[in-house]
């Protein structure tokens, strides 16, 4: 029995430690399902002008905005907070860029100016969240909920309730262009995720964020500048969401003020949780978040490919979030641990009550 | 413990009395502010646009916001314990779409209405279990319920589901004339308004006159102390989410009865409205202090704001959520200022 229990317990340890491994397994399974339906699903062809084309490339393209908001969400969640406003910031970013490009000439300069404008506006929205959370001390979900709902209103006010369309080749290239045969969006998203990862993991920044998420008071006593860090994290989350908004609108060069980024906070939270980041804060995993984002994009595409009504996916995702939350909860973990200990008396665990 | 209201032996007079009362009841300051704002809005609206202070405008204010009042009452319970329920809007969407579709499919309308309320109860129960037994943070658990409700509603239907005009559910939205004023200036109520009034009265009784109510306040003040005092913390925390969910289901019935149709996008952002109504009404977002009647005033402030925005015509309706969010933030800041004063 004990020799038998060794295997599963090791696997369980792996599951707890590197949760995103299961994300990769899930991606492989989904692709396998698609492969069964259509043996040529994974085929990647070289289209005109030497660009790669195929379902996998489509998945990578669709994953790009989710990767960005998931990375931003990952950092925010690690501090014990949450950013519900990412979807609306995407809509505002799209609205701002489309309104700007609608009146601007079709040049490289105006395309870059639109991106610059998006960065400023989304950083401002992130800064509002940051001030409310770090200086005012408001609960993160309330301040970001306000921006989530007011942000969508703001996007509608910016475009006058219209779905603004614009033309700009540079801007369009961001979403539809190719570098080295791969879509620019995916490369950009990966690059930004990598930069973020290096920034927080090659410096003490990530550790400080986790310290805040674990115990804000202890972190302050240890000399962590909680206020400045929280402020920065929410701005970063905002800017990343702004980029995601650019990605989402540039592919069609239209902003749909009520649908762009709608419920994408669900995707971001799901990606983060799949990646093994605890929603209670205190630890994060950017690689996991990227894997989670790709898994969600794969799931979305699979659902469409299999012809299942895509309206069912949000409910399914919500159920997955609930299940993952349960797996992360202390009570369920204790149940697992007790099983593993197999009768060995353990001292009473300190009850961790999520405040 | 038993003397909930303290009567000072000798009432000081004049400004000093007022100052003393204010300092004694800092908790009531936000509620008082909400009442002042409500009256101010009425005076401003009457002066700027006219036809505000008359029976039919005020009746319509109640009729159009009955569902919001019910939601705000439910959220008052949750917020008083220091929790939050973000799922109410999505619960309304799922419950109303399901209810209308069942009635259209030939179900007994009264049975369908009961089911609509029970759907809310079910959502509240699941949230409560997640929060109480698995220690999931309230906003995460109810956020997941929000996505679930919205997703389930979208599975059922993505187009407006209309209710037949003669359906008994619509009878809850029939306007009953109580007082026949000149022209159309009548006092009118609907069964929905009566339901809202009953809910408010019941909630007032439970929160201010029962042990359960005192436990709700105690949990918000300090959960640990409440548990050490031997109060039934776990059961009460379950109950507040069940109450909030059930009232969301009831709000779905009232709203659908008035509108006569349901859609999966019904109620987007209503969680913010309900939270704003509760907070404007003086309930502390951190829990422990607040009033049900304050939440009613808060809901009416938001409703009146919508009326004024429509009358004004210059403000785009899309800006409503921005204004609601702004008001909510102002009141939260006010609360923090009051709390800081009290700590000194």
Automatic annotation (TrEMBL), chain A:
PANTHER family given in the database record: ABC TRANSPORTER PERMEASE PROTEIN YPHD-RELATED-RELATED, GALACTOFURANOSE TRANSPORTER PERMEASE PROTEIN YTFT
GO MF annotations in UniProt: transmembrane transporter activity
Protein name (record): ABC transporter permease
Annotated TM spans: 20-36, 56-78, 84-101, 178-200, 231-257, 269-297, 303-327
CDD domains per the UniProt record, alphabetical: TM_PBP1_transp_AraH_like
Membrane-related topology note: Multi-pass membrane protein
Compartmental location: Cell membrane
Automatic annotation (TrEMBL), chain B:
Transmembrane segments: 29-49, 61-80, 86-103, 110-133, 187-207, 238-257, 278-309, 321-339
GO function terms (MF aspect): transmembrane transporter activity
Keywords: Cell membrane, Membrane, Sugar transport, Transmembrane, Transmembrane helix, Transport
Subcellular location: Cell membrane
GO cellular component, one term: plasma membrane
Membrane topology summary: Multi-pass membrane protein
Signal peptide extent: none
Name of the protein in its database record: Simple sugar transport system permease protein
């Amino acid at each position: 029995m004990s020799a038998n229990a060794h295997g599963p317990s090791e696997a369980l340890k792996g599951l707890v430690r590197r949760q995103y491994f299961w994300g990769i397994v899930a991606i492989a399974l989904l692709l396998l399902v698609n492969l069964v339906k259509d043996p040529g699903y994974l085929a990647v062809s070289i289209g005109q002008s030497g660009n790669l084309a195929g379902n996998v490339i489509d998945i990578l393209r669709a994953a790009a905005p989710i990767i960005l908001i998931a990375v931003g969400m990952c950092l925010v969640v690690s501090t014990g907070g949450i950013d519900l406003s990412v979807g609306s910031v995407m809509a505002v970013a799209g609205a701002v860029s489309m309104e700007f490009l609608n009146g601007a000439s079709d040049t490289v300069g105006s395309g870059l100016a639109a991106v610059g404008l998006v960065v400023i506006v989304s950083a401002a929205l992130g800064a509002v969240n940051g001030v409310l959370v770090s200086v005012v001390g408001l609960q993160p979900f309330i301040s970001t909920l306000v921006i989530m709902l007011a942000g969508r209103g703001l996007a509608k006010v910016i475009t006058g309730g219209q779905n603004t369309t614009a033309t700009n080749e540079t801007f369009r290239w961001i979403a539809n262009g190719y570098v080295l045969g791969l879509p620019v969006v995916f490369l950009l998203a990966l690059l930004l995720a990598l930069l973020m990862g290096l920034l927080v993991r090659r410096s003490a920044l990530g550790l400080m964020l986790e310290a805040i998420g674990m115990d804000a008071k202890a972190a302050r006593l240890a000399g962590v500048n909680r206020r400045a860090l929280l402020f920065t994290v929410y701005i970063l989350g905002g800017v990343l969401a702004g980029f995601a908004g650019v990605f989402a609108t540039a592919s069609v060069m239209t902003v749909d003020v009520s649908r762009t980024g709608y419920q994408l906070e669900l995707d971001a939270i799901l990606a983060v949780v799949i990646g093994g980041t605890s929603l209670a804060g205190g630890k994060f995993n950017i690689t996991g978040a990227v894997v989670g984002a790709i898994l969600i994009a794969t799931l979305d595409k699979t659902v469409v490919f299999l012809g299942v009504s895509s309206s069912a996916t949000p409910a399914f995702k919500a159920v997955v979030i609930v299940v993952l939350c349960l797996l992360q909860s202390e009570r369920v973990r204790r149940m697992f641990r007790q099983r593993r200990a197999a009768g060995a008396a353990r001292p009473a665990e300190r009850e961790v009550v999520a405040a | 413990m038993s003397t909930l209201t303290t009567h000072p032996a000798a009432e000081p007079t004049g400004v000093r009395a007022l100052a003393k009362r204010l300092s004694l009841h800092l908790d009531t300051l936000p509620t008082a502010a909400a009442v002042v704002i409500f009256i101010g809005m009425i005076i401003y609206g009457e002066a700027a646009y006219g036809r505000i202070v008359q029976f039919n405008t005020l009746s319509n204010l109640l009729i159009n916001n009955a569902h919001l009042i019910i939601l705000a009452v439910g959220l008052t319970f949750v917020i008083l314990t220091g929790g939050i329920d973000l799922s109410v809007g999505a619960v309304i969407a799922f419950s109303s779409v399901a209810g209308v579709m069942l009635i259209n499919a030939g179900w007994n309308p009264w049975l369908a209405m009961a089911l609509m309320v029970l759907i809310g109860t079910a959502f509240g129960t699941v949230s409560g279990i997640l929060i109480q037994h698995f220690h999931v943070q309230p906003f995460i658990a109810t956020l997941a319920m929000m996505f679930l409700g919205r997703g389930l509603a979208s599975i059922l239907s993505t187009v407006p589901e209309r209710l037949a005009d003669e359906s008994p559910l619509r009878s809850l939205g029939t306007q009953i004339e109580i007082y026949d004023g000149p022209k159309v200036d009548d006092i009118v109520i609907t069964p929905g308004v009566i339901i809202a009034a009953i809910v408010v009265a019941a909630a007032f009784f439970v929160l201010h006159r029962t042990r359960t109510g005192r436990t709700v306040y105690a949990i918000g003040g300090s959960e640990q102390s409440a548990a050490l005092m031997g109060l039934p913390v776990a059961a009460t925390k379950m109950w507040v989410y069940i109450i909030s969910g059930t009232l969301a289901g009831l709000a779905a019935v009232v709203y659908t009865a008035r509108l006569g149709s349901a859609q999966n996008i019904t109620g987007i952002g209503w969680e913010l409205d309900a939270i704003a109504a509760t907070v404007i009404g003086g309930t502390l977002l951190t829990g422990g202090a607040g009033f049900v009647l304050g939440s009613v005033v808060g809901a009416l402030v938001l409703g009146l704001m919508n009326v004024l925005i429509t009358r004004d015509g210059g403000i785009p309706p899309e800006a409503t959520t921005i204004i609601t969010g702004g008001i909510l933030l102002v009141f939260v800041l006010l609360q923090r200022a009051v709390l800081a004063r009290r700590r000194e």
